[in-house]
Description:
It is built from eight helices and 21 strands. The strands form five sheets. Strands 1-2-3-5-4 form a five-stranded mixed β-barrel. A five-stranded mixed β-barrel has the order 12-13-14-16-15. It folds into four domains: 9-85, CATH 2.40.50.140; 90-184, CATH 2.40.50.140; 194-268, CATH 2.40.50.140; 275-344, CATH 2.40.50.140. It is α+β, with helices and mostly antiparallel strands. The longest helix has 15 residues, at 87-101.
Amino acid sequence: MIKVNIVHPEIINQYKVGALVEGTVLEQKGHNLFIDLGILGLGIVRGQEYLSTKNIIKNLKPEDLVSVKIIELENELGFIELSLRDINKEKSWLKIKEHFKKTETVKIKIMEANAGGLMTELYGIRGFLPASQLNTKHYPKVEGGTKEKILEELKKLVGEELEVKILDLDPITSKLIFSEKAVEYGELKKIMAQYKVGDVVDCTVTKVVDFGAFVKFGQPPIDGLIHISEFDYKAVNNPNDFLKENDQVKTKIISVDNNRISLSLKALKPDPFNEIEIKYQIGQVYPAKIIRHTSTGFLAELEPGLLTNLKVPLESSAQLIIDEIYPVKIISLDKKNKQINSELVI
């Protein structure tokens, strides 16, 4: 005969319906499985809960340790009603939630691929890794971006083991979304923490584009951008005239923002504005080369990298030729804001 333990209410109240607890098998009697839950009291698996898990129960013996879920704190007999169903699934979700809470990295094996991403699982729970959440190395770089070509690239990852973080989850709807990009971003942040604005680094040019050049530097290597405006103090119209792929250049870090590092070539060169008050005087006339037309007049170059906003009378503007040299008179010098204003001498 099973004796029911009398447990103080406050101990019972530490637990709730749906909680997972561990207990020791006492005995199986009829369609009832009795489990010792320690100070919590005695639990029972019975009725439909017993019948739906009898294949599990038949392999249990007294003193076996089992995990169960509380479905009722006290039934009419004074027992705690328990369930053995989906316990492994419940425990899997608990582990997954813990990883998510701690933003930990986990390893997953890719099982299938579709045009949207990759199917996988963690602790027996099915999950999805969207193509948009793949890291730089694994993201399908496909010209034209057709679904067929993307799927072809994604299929190459089936069977691979990837390091990911959990991006989103919902046990109720069985939603489990992973991100490989989040791991890459976390690693990148650690690497980037080694650098600060003002550091001088040796770079290798990896790609030249209309707006500048992409480079790699450091160990392990990370990417950076030299914007065209940071090539030189003089005007640079075509980056390809200034840098080529695989060029080795020394640069200065001018910005570290989130996962981007901006670099400068001109920051390591003498700034021509530093000596403008010595070399140029207000009211004096100097030769300047017309660079381009602007909304307020023209931009002219007094010397390489030293530009002036040039005011030109309306009747004379049509006569000026780009790249030709004309006399200009300095009307203001602003070293702090790096501005020189001048007017055309007719």
